[in-house]
What does this fold into?
Amino acid sequence: MPLSPAQGTDLIFPYVVCSEPLGYYTGITLISLAEQGGDWVTLEAYDEDGNWLADHKVILYARQKYVRLVDQLFDVASPEIIRSIRVHAPFPLTGFELFGSYVSPGVAGLPVALSVAASGGQDVSRSYPYQLVLSEIMPDEEYYTGVTVSNLGEAAVPFDISLFGANGDLLSSRFWPEPVAPGRQLTREIWNLAGSGVIPEAAWLEVSSPEAIQGFELYLSRTDPFRFDGLPGTTAGHRRLVFPHVPDPAQWVSMLNVTSPADEPVPVILTAYSADGTVAGTAEEEVPPFGQHTFSLDTLFPAAAVAWLEVRAAEPVRGDLVTLAVDLSRMSGYGGVPME
It folds into this structure.
């Protein structure tokens, strides 16, 4: 899980759960980016509706790393009602969370997010200024895909929710039935959130709103062996993305998705590098308007020793790499690291 480049004095862990009856736990990590000294950091716990529950204060010193399970942090009678954590500090922080299962082997990692982030452009289909793109929809017959979207603003606002196919077709569009309150978190199966029923052709989801939003997705296998992982939603695209790790093709099957919410075709160049920095192969494709292209690394570079990937695009795109062990025992996924 690459660390997000996000750093700031106000951060949020978008979804946490600590419930032995449900079988899940969440551990959080904070890293101080202060150059010197130390000061108090405040962590605040909220429920699913955005209600404040409790806070926890700790002194962090320069370059210190702080790791805790969520149920160790807050004096709350029922820790399972905690659904998100906001962090405030007088110096910049970064971090991540690990979300795992007590019952089945598996863990998902999510980078911490800035508490307010705009999309930074009109490169998506909706007119609202804040957009969130969730670019991985797993096959429904094999995986349950859950989505969390949170309102980070100060007012109750509509959520405009749309599903798109890989060819750019708008497959489903709706407004959430009622305005979403400040701090409220919608956690639903993707088809429930979209109000569409299962659409096998769906490739990516867009949520837009008049206020800042953030979110992520988790996908869980429906059959044994149990597999799950997650990907954060993206609020901005980039013309250059780097994928710093590609697993051994003898043991893993890897698929790279490139999603373009632009209203025009976007040329994309994929370059694969070996560990010594030499080019192991290239591929060029055009992503259709509001579309998505999937690169099968095993098909493109069957005999090459690929260590990492670079994606360059004519317009801002989103990208994620999902890998599945050939024996189906494990899976992993992460978003591309933005470079420009």
